[in-house]
Amino acid sequence: AIVAFFAVYREGFETVLFYNALFLQTNNFFEIFIGFILGAAALAVVFVAMQKFSVKLPLNVFFLSTSILLFFFAFTFVGSGVHELQEAHVLPETNFSAIPEISILGLYPTIESSVVQLLVLVFGMFMAYIHIFRHRDFSQLFSSEKN
After folding, report:
1. Phi and psi (nearest 5°) for 17?
2. What does the pLDDT read at residue 142?
3. What's the confidence (pLDDT) of residue 147?
4. Around Cβ 37, how many Cβ atoms within 10 Å?
């Protein structure tokens, strides 16, 4: 019971942190609310399709797509986080004009944020390489059968 409680509590806490980061990045409550509603609707469609039509969810594709989405969030949040620390004068800020400022992607023209995002990118590419190499055949990623 205690392990189940902490598992559910952790998920709730992560959700609160995620929405807190969203609210800090944008002050537009309407966009966040619409995103929440669209996500809940998509989840409802998947649930109804699985229950009513006995659709088997391809787990490999599902986890691949959620991994890509989480990688995108990590890339964006780390860039925005470094930028926020630079604005608060906690970290130094060295301008790097070769990088354009695209705040929705967490891209800011500073060496510090670019280096951290590059590390996240290299880590993501390394993990993708390991995942693909482990399967040895890219087509196996999209099949639900195991050899």
Report:
1. -65, -40
2. 57
3. 47
4. 10
Residues of 68-104 as b/e, b for ≥16 C-beta within 10 angstroms? eeebeebbbbbbbbbbeebeeeebebeeeeebeeeee
- Residue 106 · residue 118 · CB < 8 Å: no
If you average pLDDT over residues 5-18, what whole number do you get? 86
Buried b (16+ CB within 10 A) or exposed e, 126-141: eeeeeeeeeeeeeeee
d(CA 19, CA 14): 9
d(C-alpha 106, C-alpha 116), whole Å: 11
Question: Angle formed by the axes of helices 29-53 and 2-25, to 10°?
Answer: 140
Neighbouring CB atoms inside 10 A of 105's CB total 14
Cβ(80)–Cβ(25) below 8 Å: yes
Contact between residue 114 and residue 78 where contact means Cβ atoms under 8 Å apart: no
Between CA 121 and CA 8 the distance in angstroms is 30
Tens digits of per-residue pLDDT, 25-37?
Answer: 777 888 888 988 9
Q: Is the pTM of this model over 0.85?
A: no
Do 105 and 117 form a contact (C-beta atoms < 8 A)? no
